[in-house]
Design a protein that fits this description.
The structure is a homodimer of 398-residue chains.
Chain A (H helix, E strand, L loop, with lengths): L4 H5 L2 E2 L5 E2 L8 E2 H18 L3 H4 L5 H12 L7 E4 L2 H15 L5 E5 L4 H14 L4 E5 L4 H4 L4 E7 L11 H10 L3 E5 L11 H4 L3 E4 L13 E5 L43 H11 L7 H22 L4 E2 L11 E5 L3 H10 L2 E2 L1 E3 L3 E5 L7 H16 L16
Parallel strand pairs in A: 2-13, 5-6, 5-7, 7-8, 8-9
Antiparallel strand pairs in A: 1-3, 4-10, 9-10, 11-12, 12-15, 14-15
Helix pairs in contact in A: 2-10, 4-10, 5-6, 11-13
């Protein structure tokens, strides 16, 4: 193992007394972001003003940062661009893919997909009319459901609730064998598990950066378009930043070269600066080490919890190859149990109706943290603390 | 006049020796943003982590800040929400409007509109097919072109190049008289001129915040939907944050109540924090005072430049009612003249092929600044400095 996890942990601000197992929802703050945000605000915006677009390199930021993300998902340089939110990027990928496969009318997805992906697909289908439809099957039925009626599938590699991991290679190959396009949502993959979008032949990939890439709340999303499609994909959201010459102010739209056309509006420079600084943590980190350590942490947690808390049912596949970087347990009192854990400084999260999620991100979580989290959870379960009224109040949104 | 412009000017960081006449492109940094960004990053993100969505009020931010913007554009409370970029908000407004007027196929716009609006409309028309079309006429022909073939018009109130201002009242009334919907882009209006979207009967309005509202590079956009349409407008970009119950994780989409449905993905909390702090400048500012002072500054500039620089041709309407808050002059050497001005600390900008733009934002620009800018411009013109090679190099994007 070449990655120094003691060193990466030291790069994060983590509150005293907290074991943070929710990096799969919002990554913690890398120290370096603070100075970077201060200088982006005071020195770039404050002093350069409009000149920042040139002098501070703001205009190139979505592409330059995109290349840093590309390395982490096995994408070719120049094939990833940052911007907008993941939902918007899903819309872009889907709309382009459907046009590239004009004789078919079906988007295939699964019921384990993050709901926003399904909502966006449903919205696009309604906008298009003309017989377009969204077909949603169970996660384990996806492979069989890929047939020659499918224009494109939209699959999230790692299930947001269970951590179940799809087989990207098998599904992509099947799609291509029947003439369908493969769109992968990497929200729970980028920075969590090794991803090889290029080697796996993904047509499009999208993802967010505020989870395992630690860009902060509302950090920009990314979109990958395979180089073979970049010059033919028509951007449905044809904003000026994706124009071939944004500052020529032509009245007519001409799509920019390559991945640039997937830019839409003015990029969120402050959030991009936070992301750029957060990505420094990844210099010298090997994704294979991340994977090995994250599985080790997950196994440690599963063993500990199963030994001490028989009422919690493992909701994540036990096999390494079938899971991502999070571990989930189910319990009818899941909500109150999670509140009790948070009160003790162990922060995971809850997904209705009964899933407790725990993310194991080796950049800042150690085996000792996991052992301590198991102890605390065991105590809560033994004392049936979920019955305490203060943990039953549902006034929280996440 | 009740607004204290000496006090508002003191709220901004402005670099030494700079007269900043480009707030119509990127507003300068309000002091308050620095401390707010630092605390949002270190205290909210860093210490609250995922709990910030509840404890720091992140989840309500798009709506809460939307209400602050609503006041500045004459919108009803609860009818504006923040997020995404202006191009995305244009897409949302257009897609919803077309569906509300299903028997018509024409989007009307004008050649003075900001190109991204036209590009987005063109992209939507291509996605929809089925005979939809974008009709673009000259700015002065818009009123006559509003006929009963028009589903919706998409008009930017103040022209980004010339500062020419459309008559929002007349155009909106004509649209309604023929059964068309009115979508107003307020990019160069919000914070620049008094806007009364509710009183004028606008159906939709959109705008950005990084110009006159000083939210910083890439600050979030806004969308207004008239209360009478809020429950019927279907969101084409149906992301989870616009769902009636985002954290129920239903597989099916149900649009949220009112303006909430125009939210899409996870909101950009860092950029929203910058905007929120920047909006504090507007407490105690009367838009009528802003308008009176901005016209006074514009007149002072026009008189001065016309007296001293006969080669510069005024490109902005002279009549107060026909112009916004910027003044533009045209010159074949506009690009090089603007570079020469910037070298002297007078920052405006250039829009191809020959427009020099100067924004007059009374929050931080005084009559003395205008007089000094006129002197500097006069000297540049008298010395024909545009011939200097260093000002002719076109290596800049903005």
């Amino acid at each position: 193992m070449t990655t120094n996890f003691t060193a990466t942990r030291a790069m994060f601000d983590l509150p005293e007394g907290v074991i943070y197992l929710d990096g799969n929802s919002l990554g913690p703050l890398p120290h370096a972001v603070k100075a970077r945000m201060a200088s982006t605000v005071a020195e770039e915006w404050g002093q350069m003003l409009i000149r920042g677009w040139n002098e501070a390199g703001w205009m190139e930021q979505p592409r330059r940062v995109g290349d840093r993300v590309a390395r982490l998902i096995g994408a070719e340089a120049g094939s990833v661009v940052m911007g907008d939110t993941l939902s918007i990027k899903v819309y872009q990928a889907l709309a382009s893919a459907l046009e590239m496969n004009p004789d078919r009318r079906v988007i295939l997805s699964d019921s384990g997909n993050f709901p926003s992906d399904l909502y966006i697909a449903d919205g696009l289908v309604r906008t298009l009319g003309q017989g377009y439809q969204l077909r949603v099957v169970a996660p384990e039925e996806v492979l069989d459901a890929i047939d020659d009626s499918v224009a494109a599938f939209l699959i999230t590699e790692v299930d947001y609730r269970t951590g179940r991991r799809h087989d990207m290679k098998a599904l992509t190959e099947k799609a291509h064998a029947v003439g369908a396009l493969a769109i992968w949502d990497l929200a729970h993959s980028a920075g969590a598990v090794p991803v090889e979008v290029a080697a796996r032949g993904a047509d499009f990939a999208v993802g967010c950066t505020y989870k395992y890439l630690n860009s902060g709340p509302g950090g920009p999303a990314f979109i990958y378009v395979a180089p073979r499609h970049q010059e033919s994909a028509r951007p449905a959201l044809s904003g000026w930043m994706g124009h071939a010459a944004p500052f020529a102010f032509d009245l007519d739209y001409h799509a920019g070269a390559g991945i640039e056309r997937m830019r839409v509006g003015t990029p969120p420079i402050l959030q991009l600066a936070a992301l750029d600084a957060a990505l420094d943590v990844w210099d010298g980190v090997d994704m294979a080490d991340i994977r090995a350590r994250s599985l080790e942490l997950g196994d440690l947690f599963i063993e500990g919890v199963e030994a001490a808390c028989p009422d919690l049912r493992l909701a994540t596949p036990r096999a390494h190859r079938d899971r991502g970087s999070q571990v989930s347990f189910a319990h009818p009192e899941g909500y109150a149990i999670m509140q009790a854990l948070i009160a003790e400084g162990v922060i995971g999260d809850f997904r209705a109706p009964e899933i407790l999620r725990f993310g194991f991100t080796p950049l800042y979580i150690s085996p000792d943290d996991v052992r301590r989290a198991v102890e605390i959870l065991s105590r809560i379960m033994a004392e049936e603390r979920w019955n305490r009224p203060e943990f039953r109040q549902r006034n929280r949104v996440t």
